[in-house]
Design brief:
Layout (H helix, E strand, L loop, with lengths): L1 H10 L9 H26 L21 H17 L7 H5 L8 H31 L17 H37 L4 H4 L2 E5 L3 E5 L1 H20 L3 H28 L7 H32 L8
Antiparallel strand pairs: 1-2
Helix pairs in contact: 1-6, 1-8, 2-5, 2-6, 3-9, 3-10, 9-10
Keywords: Amino-acid transport, Auxin signaling pathway, Cell membrane, Membrane, Symport, Transmembrane, Transmembrane helix, Transport
Organism: Cicer arietinum (Chickpea)
Family: Belongs to the amino acid/polyamine transporter 2 family. Amino acid/auxin permease (AAAP) (TC 2.A.18.1) subfamily.
């Protein structure tokens, strides 16, 4: 995790989102790579002679695998994990801003959204369905890193390597808009400050010219250090993913987009479309609250037995 943080400190010095196309492409390829490995290993496990696992429409059995309260909390947390898959909405505008004007950005973005969501839904639905068929009620939170598969070691290791590379790129895709927001605010707030605005051009062998800004260097480095330390103190994968998913799902994926659509399209108040949009927004707010509560409970439960920085 420390090495991951160091790599992110270096990559965070890429000046802006427009220069990340190669990194996001690599991350996307890695995503398909480890998903395909997970699907393949699941199919191989299902095909093993005598394979039989406990499965059920509602998953873990109350009174056998867990208590009724644990069932509710885990279900709420799972909703947060699902909501996290909508986190891409936070960077849609930044991605659209990098597109050329022909064809129009909104048309190109709509097409890419349809293709991207369809393909990723297909892959991850297969991972979920086949993973559950392979492990049943004992399925780990992540079957590549949660000790679901042990053999073949080399293929599992390749899958985990793909995950690491994917996360390296994903971190930058989501962090760069935050970097840009803070830096643009700082340059507007203190336009005369050399710390904020002055850039130095540094020649790096085999890489090219690096545009260095002192505020960017300091602020981004501190940000990565903080997030890395936070991740090392609270390494609760599913609970943290569920909480982050819950926090970002309603405001960024539902509320702001629907409100902007209603205003831009001048939808009549209390019309069927207006009622439908408002109902969807209200339902997703409930989903967000439920997911947040479940994830927070999961973090609290794990903190009771976890010792920070202890292996």
């Amino acid at each position: 995790m420390a090495l991951f943080g160091v790599s992110e400190i270096l990559l965070s010095q890429i000046p802006d989102f427009h220069e990340l196309s190669w990194l996001s492409f690599v991350a996307a390829v890695m995503s398909f790579g480890y998903a395909s490995i997970g699907i393949g290993l699941s199919i191989a496990k299902i095909a093993e002679p005598g394979h039989h696992v406990e499965t059920g429409l509602t998953g873990l059995v109350v009174g056998v695998d867990e208590t009724s309260s644990q069932k509710y909390w885990n279900t709420f947390q799972a909703i947060g994990d699902i909501a996290f898959s909508y986190a891409f909405c936070a960077v849609i505008v930044d991605i659209q801003d990098t597109l050329k004007s022909s064809p129009p950005e909104n048309q190109a973005m709509k097409k890419s959204n349809v293709i991207g969501i369809t393909v990723t839904t297909f892959f991850y639905a297969l991972c979920g369905l086949l993973g559950y068929e392979a492990f049943g009620n004992k399925a780990p939170g992540n079957f590549l890193t949660g000790f679901g598969f042990y053999e073949p070691f080399w293929l599992v290791d390749i899958g985990n390597l793909f995950i690491i590379i994917h996360l390296v790129g994903a971190y930058q895709v989501f962090a760069q808009p935050i970097f840009s927001l803070v830096e643009s605010w700082g340059s507007k707030r203190w336009p005369e400050s050399k710390l904020m605005t002055k850039e130095y051009y540094v020649k790096i062998p085999l890489v090219g010219i690096w545009r260095m800004n002192m505020f960017r260097l300091i602020w981004r480095t501190l940000y990565v250090i903080f997030t890395t330390l936070f991740a090392m103190i609270f390494p609760f994968f599913n609970s943290i993913v569920g909480l982050v998913g819950a926090m970002s799902f309603f405001p960024l994926s539902v509320y702001f987009p629907t409100e902007m659509y209603l205003v831009q399209s001048k939808v009549t108040k209390y019309s069927p479309m207006w009622i439908g949009m408002k109902s969807l927004s209200g339902f997703c707010l409930i989903v967000t609250l439920v997911a947040a509560v479940g994830s927070i409970e999961g973090i609290i439960s794990e903190l009771k037995t976890y010792k920070p920085f202890a292996y």
